[in-house]
């Protein structure tokens, strides 16, 4: 008997759970796009988008998903034939690099596989050997959503500076922004991309590129007028923000989402995600004591607070996902970019997520393991409750 009626929990790593307040803000007639409230609202987003990225850098808004922001960022800095260093820790950085190659860049990849973060010592060596400074940009993903690895972006800037290499540091924070702490200016990131449908809790369709003066000055010849970030950050007329009609309803939703983040406080948002991640890990560590279950990233310091990737053996990943969704209304993420994909699943715990949702998701998974006779260690829910009850 299915018990899935009631409010579902979409626990995939994007799109994330949308707050009712965001949906209600979008539920309105189309506004006047020529003047008035929408213009004021759009201007008001800019300082708050800088705040969530902890930066004074410029931010350009694009009507498009994360892939659009990837292309926007690359096209503004690259020329055909430029060399790009890709630090791959999962499917997403590989994909960003493929896009750079498609635009005519020479892509060099250091692949760390699917279970480990970037090795900073190795990057330092590669940069030290690049005596002529051929590498124009370094592409890194802060949190790779396919593996749930979290990379040390500040440490990466440290080794770039150590070597004195001039390359731009470009970071993908599509999964991490508003979830895992990220400080664009303090960490020395030149270009950062993100989208609105993960930590920013808004329906997919708007994305952002933050860039500093160094990145702006690095301008290559790949950029075409639609992707050009310059008019978007200093629009003389309102329509230059978007190079056409504004994504009106997304802007209302985003305004509300940013208000929610401000009201909670960015530090509290980060702390909430960290605590909930610890609760999840506590359960998985117990389940993993017996049977096929294993957290994909062994080192807690290299784990995201927004998404968790789990290996559970083929075809248990798919079987568990189906059971949780159809029996209980909990949708888990697929084993994206992994082989065999049905040996993995992921939990998205980004954005509008609280403790009872996480405890419900863990309880559902525990029931699924039992229903499907997947061997597992006991005591996971008790361990999760203890982690939740622990102070600080
Ligand atoms: C989701 C995601 C993307 C892709 O974003 P889309 O909106 O699906 O195009 C890229 N990088 C990371 C790290 C992501 O999590």
Q: Can you tell me about this structure?
A:
By secondary structure, the chain is an alpha/beta fold. Helix content is 40%, strand content 17%. The chain contains 13 helices and 14 strands. The protein has helices at 20-26, 37-52, 66-77, 91-102, 120-129, 153-163, 213-217, 230-233, 248-264, 266-287, 316-328, 355-371, 380-389; strands at residues 9-11, 58-63, 83-88, 106-111, 135-141, 143-144, 149-150, 168-172, 191-195, 206-211, 294-295, 307-311, 330-334, 344-348. The strands form three sheets. Strands 2-10-9-8-5-3-4 form a seven-stranded mixed β-sheet, with helices on both faces. Helix 2 crosses helix 9 (248-264), helix 10 packs antiparallel against helix 13 and helix 12 (355-371) packs antiparallel against helix 13 (380-389). The chain is globular and about 60 Å long. The protein starts with 8 loop residues before the first strand and ends with a helix. The model has no long low-confidence stretch (mean pLDDT 97).
